[in-house]
Write a structure and sequence with these properties.
Number of helices: 0
Number of domains: 1
Number of strands: 28
Structural class: mainly beta
Distance between the termini: 15 Å
CATH class: Mainly Beta
Helix content: under 10%
CATH architecture: 7 Propeller
Strand order of the largest sheet: 1-28-27-26
C-alpha cells in the first residue's frame, strides 16, 4: 500500500492509464494531474475551471480526456491539448472504442451530445429531464449510455440516444453519485444518497438495491472480472462487494479523510482511492 499527497485540493476523479503505469487525478479546479502510479511522481498538471471534476478517462491511444471548460483531449506525454469538444462540459463518458464522447455540455440545460472524438464534431443530441447532470457512463458493449442528474437517472441507446429506462429518486438531489457499468455491460449500478441501485440493462429495470449503514456513496468501480464492486463513501471507508449476492466482503479504512473517487487498474491487480484530503492511496487487490 502506498499513500501520496497528490494535490492541494479535493480529489473526486481517478483513472488508470491503459497500461496501468500512470494515474490521472482530477478534482476541485483541477482538470487533470498525471502521476506515476508506482512512485507518485507528477508527470504534468492542468488546472481546471470548475469546482469539481467527477469525469476523467483515458482513450485507447493513451491520451487523457478531462474537463477544462470544454471537453479536452490531452497528450499523455506532456499534457498539451490535442483537441476540444463542445462549449462547457459538465460530465462525460467515452465509448469503449474511444471513437465517441457522450458529453453534457449545455450549462443550464439537460442536454447530452455525442461527439466524434477524432474530429470534435457533434453527431447527435438529446434533451433530458435529469436535472443538473453529474455522471455519464457508456457500456463496454457499445450499446448503452447512462446519465445521472440531480432529479432522474436515464438509460439510453448509444446510436440514437433514445431513452429505454428512467427512474426518479428524491435522494439524487443530495449531491455526488456513483455510476458504473459492469465489464460485460449486463449490469449497471448507480447511487442516490446511501442507496446503491442495481439495474439489469437487458430488461432496463432495477433488480436489487443495497442500503448499508454508511454515509453517502461517492464513487464505485468494478474489477475486470465483474465479480467485485469497490465503493468509497464520505465516512472514509472503502468497501468490496460480491456482485452475485451484493454482500460486503471487506472494508478498508485508509485514514485519509472522506473519500470521493475510486479506480481499478485495467489488469485488476491494483486499486486507488482519494478524497477530501488530496491524498491518494494505491493498494494491491487480492479479490
Amino acid at each position: 500500500m502506498l499513500i501520496w499527497k497528490a494535490d492541494t485540493r479535493k480529489i473526486d476523479a481517478l483513472a488508470f492509464s491503459p497500461d496501468g503505469r500512470a494515474l490521472a487525478v482530477g478534482g476541485a479546479h483541477l482538470a487533470c494531474r498525471l502521476i506515476d502510479a508506482t512512485t507518485g511522481e507528477q508527470l504534468w498538471r492542468v488546472p481546471g475551471k470548475q469546482p469539481f471534476s467527477l469525469s476523467l478517462a483515458f482513450a485507447r491511444d493513451g491520451s487523457v480526456v478531462c474537463k477544462c471548460g470544454p471537453l479536452s483531449i490531452r497528450s499523455a506525454t506532456n499534457g498539451s491539448e490535442v483537441r476540444k469538444c463542445g462549449n462547457w462540459c459538465q460530465a462525460f463518458a467515452l465509448s469503449q472504442d474511444s471513437r465517441h464522447a457522450f458529453v453534457a455540455d449545455a450549462k443550464f440545460q439537460d442536454i447530452v451530445r455525442r461527439y466524434d472524438l477524432a474530429t470534435g464534431d457533434p453527431r447527435r443530441e438529446v434533451e433530458l429531464e435529469a436535472g443538473k447532470i453529474k455522471r455519464i457512463a457508456a457500456s463496454p458493449d457499445g450499446k448503452l449510455v447512462a446519465v445521472l442528474g440531480c432529479r432522474r437517472f436515464h438509460l439510453l441507446t448509444t446510436n440514437k440516444l433514445e431513452v429505454v429506462g428512467s427512474e426518479a429518486h428524491r435522494a439524487l438531489s443530495n449531491g455526488s453519485f456513483a455510476l458504473r457499468f459492469s465489464p460485460c455491460g449486463r449490469t449497471l449500478v448507480y447511487t442516490a444518497g446511501r442507496t446503491l441501485f442495481v439495474w439489469d440493462t437487458a430488461r432496463a429495470r432495477e433488480v436489487a438495491k443495497v442500503e448499508p449503514d454508511t454515509k453517502q456513496f461517492m464513487d464505485a468501480a468494478f474489477t475486470p472480472c465483474g465479480q467485485r464492486l469497490i465503493t468509497v463513501s464520505k465516512d472514509g471507508e472503502t468497501r468490496v462487494w460480491e456482485t452475485a449476492t451484493w454482500t460486503c466482503e471487506r472494508t478498508f479504512a485508509w485514514a485519509i479523510g472522506s473519500l470521493r473517487a475510486v479506480a481499478v487498474s485495467p489488469d485488476g491487480t491494483r486499486a486507488a482511492a482519494a478524497g477530501d484530503e488530496s491524498r491518494v492511496v494505491v493498494w494491491d487487490l487480492d479479490v
